[in-house]
Write a structure and sequence with these properties.
alpha+beta; Tetrahydropterin Synthase, Chain A; 3-stranded antiparallel sheet; 9 helices; rod-shaped
């Protein structure tokens, strides 16, 4: 082999190594000279020589200059899990989350970077400490049952208020309460918020305000109580439900009584008015009968008066007739009937009308017929009895 060709062959790999090394250096330089910033991120670049911090809050490629890069999310969420102790010595593990916004001004960002250095450190060392402290201070303000029921919304409000504005100044007051399960008296410590002029007093200012961090949407996803507390809550719920059921049943019974009373009154009124209707019908019938009888009586009275009047008229008529002719027609009728009676009786007589033997004379006149004499005597007697004047008036002539 020709010695002159050896160096030439060695130069080819050496040049390739140099090119590859140059490419690597170029790539390294390219990635350390510029940094791409997304719209939801904040970029912090620490100068490798001076140590000064440069902040970028807008999107796009930014100058890095081989400096140390730290990124923060403009908005992030912190999830927590903390065991809360309530004023009845009950415990509950609270799980939830809270969102927070990072500041965009250099002063607050420098303070955050100098004390914490990373977003994860901000969550664990700052947010976690603040949230846990507020939960710790809020628990004693209520009992386990109250946190489960009527003060559940207060629990959220108290924690969120203290995170944003600072921890409340509180005072402790011991009070005696009746245990809802055992019904025994027990002493509990009640933590109350101290107020001045109606405004809650603060034990300290909000720590997050020092760093310009703003929190939003504090929420509790779950609150798991200890087994003992959970059992007590269940018993209290059952008792509450029993009480509510009893109240509802009492109300139902009361309403039923009211309804029954109303129905009774309605039935009584209905019966009363039914009786009134029967009574009114009977009264109407009686009044009708009374009026009918009254009309009948009035009609009878009128008929009576009419008969009396008619009788009086007839009597007056007869009296006047009798006064006018002396009751001649009646007398004649009576005389005629009398004549008929004795004539009938005389016709049935079987004996002798005149004596069979006469002696001497009877005067100047000739003796009359016995039958004729008898008839004249009876006629005259009847006329005398009736007061009839059988003689002809003077100047009258027979026809």
């Amino acid at each position: 082999m020709n010695r002159a060709s050896v160096p030439s062959a060695l130069n080819v790999p050496f040049k390739a190594v140099i090119v590859v090394a140059a490419l690597i250096v170029g790539i390294f330089l390219m990635f350390n000279l510029f940094e791409e910033v997304n719209a939801d991120k904040i970029l912090c670049v620490q100068n490798p020589i001076t140590g000064s911090l440069s902040w970028y809050t807008t999107a796009g490629p930014k100058w890095q200059g081989f400096g140390k890069v730290t990124k923060y999310s403009k908005r992030s969420i912190y999830a927590f899990s903390y065991q809360v102790r309530f004023n009845d010595a009950g415990h509950g593990t609270m799980k939830g989350s809270i969102q927070f916004d990072m500041p965009l001004d250099k002063e607050h960002l420098n303070k955050i970077q100098c004390k914490y250095g990373t977003e994860e450190a901000v969550k664990k060392q700052l947010l976690q400490t603040v949230v846990n402290k507020c939960l710790y201070m809020t628990g004693p303000m209520m009992s386990s049952r109250e946190s489960y029921a009527e003060k559940r919304s207060y629990l959220i409000n108290y924690v969120e208020d203290q995170i944003q504005n600072g921890v409340f100044k509180t005072r402790i007051r011991d009070t005696s309460v009746k245990d809802p399960i055992t019904n025994n008296e027990k002493v509990v410590s009640i933590v109350e918020i101290a107020e001045k002029n109606g405004i809650p007093e603060r034990q300290e200012t909000a720590v997050l305000n020092e760093f310009g961090i703003k929190t939003y949407n504090f929420s509790i996803e779950n609150l798991t109580y200890d087994a003992t507390v959970e059992s007590q809550i269940q018993q209290q719920q059952q008792m509450t439900m029993a009480v509510q059921t009893a109240i509802a049943e009492a109300k139902k019974a009361e309403q039923a009584a009211i309804t029954a009373e109303a129905n009774g009154k309605a039935e009584a009124a209905k019966s009363k008015w039914t009786q009134e209707a029967v009574k009114a019908t009977a009264v109407t019938i009686a009044e009708k009968d009374r009026d009918s009888c009254k009309l009948v009586m009035e009609a009878a009275e009128f008929r009576k008066q009419a008969a009396i009047k008619e009788g009086e008229g007839e009597s007056t008529k007869r009296r006047l007739i009798l006064q006018a002719d002396g009751a001649l027609a009646q007398k004649l009728q009576t005389w005629l009937e009398a004549q008929q009676y004795w004539a009938d009786a005389f016709s049935k007589y079987q004996g002798s009308i005149v004596p069979q033997i006469q002696s001497g004379g009877a005067g100047t006149g000739s003796p009359g017929n016995g039958a004729t004499n008898f008839m004249e005597i009876m006629g005259m007697k009847a006329a005398r009895d009736l007061g009839l004047d059988m003689t002809m008036p003077k100047g009258a002539t027979s026809k």
